[in-house]
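Contributing new records

If you add data, match the layout below exactly. Sequence lines come first and carry their own label; structure lines follow with theirs. Keep one chain per record. Anything else will be rejected by the validation script.
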Amino acid sequence: MKALLIVDLQNDFCPGAKLAVPDGDRIVPVVNQLMEKFDLVLASKDWHPVESVHFEKWPVHCVENTEGAELHPELKADRIDKIFLKGTESKDDGYSAFEATNSNLEKYLKDKGVKELYIVGLATEYCVKSTAMDALNKGFRVYIVEEGVVGIKEEDVEKAIEGMGKAGINFISYEDL
């Protein structure tokens, strides 16, 4: 069994927002197409409280129950089976979807018989990388769909990709799926 995990494709990470990933919204059409190839589609969301230690490092973003914390409006969210909320506690950064507090992602995936996890989303060098590394460490075969991720700083993205590749994470193009 394989699953698609959409990491933090939220309004506050898209162009013009509080913590925008340059061209972050360009992956929405690819992600919408990818969802059609999977029987199980999951997503993670940053879901920070108003008061969070996370905002000591980053601009305020993805505050729970705000428009900025919602998924990108052009994402076909009705195709998502379950959303995992992370960064929900005031002392919680919540980079990895495996840190979700509303449900245990690892248990959920294993209960569904998932062996392969395909990851897309924002930002490559932060939440995508943290989620992918946690998935690998929990025994899943991990694939990053190249056209489905965007990062912030090119040099940091390159380092993250190199590190993930060395760790055993696979990179695959949309066309090879």
